[in-house]
C-alpha cells in the first residue's frame, strides 16, 4: 500500500504492508459539485436559512462589520469576500464596511498573509482591522456568559449596525465544529473571555469532543456570545481535501450553521476499531504550521488507538511549537500525570494561555506514545514528551520497536482535522454521536 500523506505544503510518501492496515479513516468528501465554487456561495447567499437576504439586511445600515478568519484557517476568502461585499453594496452602496480579522488568541495576521487570503485589491481598497485580544480599551462588555465568565468583545464588532461573519465548517476537537458562532467567541473576544470559556472543567467534559454540540459547554457559551453580539448573518463553507468549496450555507448563525454541520457529519463521521498504531497528519499547511495546531490531529488519533498504543504524527511545524506557555508547561513538569492534576486544579477565572491545548495533549500522551515527524529540533520534541523522527521510515522503525508484537494493526488518518472518529465499541453511546 502506497500512502501519500499531507505534510506542510507537500506530501510524505510511505509504503506499508496491506495486511497491517485495518482502516484508512478519512472524510468521504467525494462530492462533485455541478457549480463553480463562486456559484455555490452565490446560491447560498440567494437562499439564506432563517434570515432575510444580506442585501435587505444591509439597507439603512451605516456601520457594517464582516468578521473574517485569520491566517491559520484555510477559508477561501478570495472567493467569499467579493461576493459578500457585492451583496452588501447591492442593498446599501454607501455603507461603511469594515473587515475585522478574527485572530482570537493568535498572533497578528501579516500584510502578506492578508494579500494571500483576500487578494491585493481587497487589501488595498477595503478597511481591514486586525483584532487584538489584549487591547482592553477597545473592548465592549456585553454581559455574563452561561459559564459565569464575563463577555468582552471587540468594540468594532459590538458597535456595528450590522454584524456578519464568513468562515468554514469542519470538525473541532473540543468545540464540536468550527464556524458559525466561533467567529465571535473566541474570534473577536477579549483574552479573559476566551480563557474563561476554555477552562479545564469544560475541556474535560465528555461532551467537549469532536462532532458534539449538544450539551457541549464551550458551544453553549459561544452561541450565547454570538447572539449577544448581534451576529446577524453568516456565510460558511465546507471544503474538500483540496480545500475547494463543495457546500455553502448563509443566514442565521444557529440555523445556517446547523445545516452546514449536518452536511459535514454526513461525509466526515467514520467509525474506527482502535489499533496498535495510528498514523495521522494535521492535513498539511496551514494547519500544521505549528505543534499547537497539530494537537487537533492527535485528538483524532486518540479515538482510533488502543490504550498503550503508538501514534505517529506528521506535522511540519515550520513556525515552531506555536505557544510559549504551551511549551513551558511541558518543559517545567516532566510528570504527565502531575501536569494533568495541576491543570485540573486551575480555577476557570485563573485559566492561563494554552492550558487547554496542553490538557488535550496530556490526555493523548497518557493513553499512547507519540512519535513526531516535523521540522522541530529533537530537544523541543522531547520536551513535549514525544519521540522525534526525521523521516517516515525512521518513525515506522521506532514504532515497531515500541510495540510488543511483531504483527500489529494500523489505522491511517490522512487528515485528522477533517474527520469525526467514533470508536466502534462506543458508537451507540449518545455522548459520542449527539448533534
Largest sheet: 6 strands, parallel
What would the CATH topology of the largest domain be?
Answer: Rossmann fold
Structural class by secondary-structure content:
alpha/beta
CATH class wording of the largest domain: Alpha Beta
What is the average per-residue confidence, as pLDDT, rounded to a whole number? 94
> Mind telling me the C-alpha Rg?
21 Å
Count of helical regions: 17
User: What are the segments in which pLDDT stays under 50 over at least 5 consecutive residues?
Assistant: 426-435
Domain Lactate racemase C-terminal: 272-421
Protein name: Nickel-dependent lactate racemase
GO molecular function, one term: lactate racemase activity
InterPro entries: LarA-like, LarA-like_C, LarA-like_N, LarA_C, Ni_dep_LarA
Could you walk me through the main structural features you see in this protein, from its secondary elements to its overall organization?
- The protein has 435 residues and is of the alpha/beta class.
- It has 2 domains: 2-27 and 273-433, Alpha-Beta Complex (2-enoyl-CoA Hydratase, Chain A, domain 1); 37-267, Rossmann fold.
- It has helices at 37-46, 54-58, 77-91, 111-118, 120-125, 155-158, 191-197, 200-203, 217-228, 255-268, 291-302, 324-332, 336-344, 355-367, 378-383, 392-402, 430-433; strands at residues 2-7, 10-15, 21-24, 63-69, 96-102, 127-130, 139-144, 150-154, 162-168, 171-172, 176-177, 231-239, 245-251, 269-272, 275-281, 305-314, 369-373, 387-389, 410-413, 420-423.
- Strands 3-19-15-16-17-18 form a 6-stranded parallel β-sheet, sandwiched between helices. Strands 6-5-4-9-12-13 form a 6-stranded mixed β-sheet, with helices on both faces. Strands 1-2 form a two-stranded antiparallel sheet.
- Residues 426-435 have low confidence and may be disordered.
- Pfam families: Lar_N (PF09861), LarA_C (PF21113).
- Residues 272-421 form the Lactate racemase C-terminal domain.
- This is Nickel-dependent lactate racemase.
Amino acid at each position: 500500500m502506497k500512502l501519500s500523506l499531507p505534510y506542510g505544503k507537500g506530501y510524505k510518501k510511505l509504503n506499508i504492508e496491506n495486511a497491517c492496515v485495518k482502516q484508512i479513516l478519512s472524510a468521504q468528501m467525494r462530492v462533485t459539485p455541478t457549480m463553480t465554487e463562486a456559484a455555490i456561495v452565490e446560491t447560498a447567499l440567494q437562499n439564506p436559512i432563517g434570515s432575510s437576504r444580506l442585501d435587505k439586511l444591509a439597507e439603512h445600515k451605516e456601520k457594517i462589520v464582516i468578521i473574517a478568519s485569520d491566517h491559520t484557517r484555510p477559508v477561501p476568502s478570495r472567493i467569499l469576500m467579493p461576493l459578500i461585499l457585492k451583496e452588501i453594496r447591492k442593498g446599501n452602496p454607501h455603507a461603511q464596511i469594515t473587515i475585522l480579522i478574527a485572530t482570537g488568541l493568535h498572533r497578528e495576521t501579516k500584510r502578506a498573509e492578508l494579500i494571500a487570503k483576500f487578494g491585493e485589491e481587497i487589501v488595498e481598497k477595503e478597511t481591514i482591522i486586525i483584532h487584538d485580544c489584549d487591547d482592553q480599551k477597545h473592548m465592549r462588555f456585553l454581559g455574563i456568559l452561561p459559564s459565569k465568565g464575563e463577555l468582552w468583545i471587540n468594540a468594532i464588532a459590538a458597535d456595528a449596525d450590522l454584524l456578519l461573519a464568513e468562515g468554514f465548517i469542519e470538525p473541532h476537537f473540543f468545540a464540536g465544529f468550527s464556524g458559525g458562532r466561533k467567529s465571535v467567541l473566541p474570534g473577536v473576544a477579549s483574552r479573559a473571555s476566551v480563557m474563561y470559556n476554555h477552562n479545564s472543567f469544560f475541556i474535560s467534559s465528555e461532551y467537549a469532543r469532536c462532532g458534539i454540540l449538544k450539551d457541549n459547554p464551550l458551544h453553549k457559551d459561544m452561541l450565547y456570545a454570538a447572539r449577544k453580539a448581534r451576529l446577524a448573518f453568516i456565510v460558511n463553507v465546507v471544503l474538500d481535501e483540496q480545500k475547494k468549496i463543495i457546500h455553502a450555507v448563509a443566514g442565521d448563525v444557529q440555523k445556517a450553521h446547523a445545516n452546514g454541520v449536518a452536511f459535514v457529519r454526513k461525509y466526515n463521521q467514520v467509525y474506527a476499531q482502535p489499533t496498535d498504531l495510528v498514523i495521522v497528519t494535521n492535513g498539511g499547511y496551514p494547519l500544521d504550521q505549528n505543534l499547537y495546531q497539530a494537537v487537533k490531529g492527535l485528538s483524532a488519533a486518540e479515538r482510533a488507538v488502543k490504550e498503550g498504543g503508538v501514534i505517529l504524527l506528521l506535522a511540519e511545524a515550520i513556525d515552531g511549537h506555536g505557544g510559549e506557555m504551551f511549551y513551558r508547561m511541558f518543559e517545567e513538569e516532566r510528570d504527565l500525570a502531575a501536569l494533568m492534576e495541576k491543570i485540573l486544579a486551575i480555577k476557570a477565572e485563573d485559566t492561563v494561555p494554552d492550558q487547554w491545548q496542553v490538557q488535550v495533549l496530556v490526555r493523548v500522551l497518557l493513553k499512547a506514545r507519540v512519535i513526531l515527524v516535523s521540522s522541530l529540533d529533537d530537544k523541543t520534541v522531547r520536551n513535549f514528551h514525544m519521540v522525534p523522527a526525521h523521516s517516515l521510515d525512521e518513525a515506522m522503525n521506532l514504532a515497531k520497536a515500541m510495540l510488543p508484537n511483531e504483527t500489529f494493526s494500523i489505522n491511517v488518518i490522512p487528515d485528522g482535522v477533517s474527520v469525526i472518529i467514533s470508536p466502534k465499541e462506543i458508537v451507540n453511546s449518545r455522548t459520542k454521536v449527539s448533534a
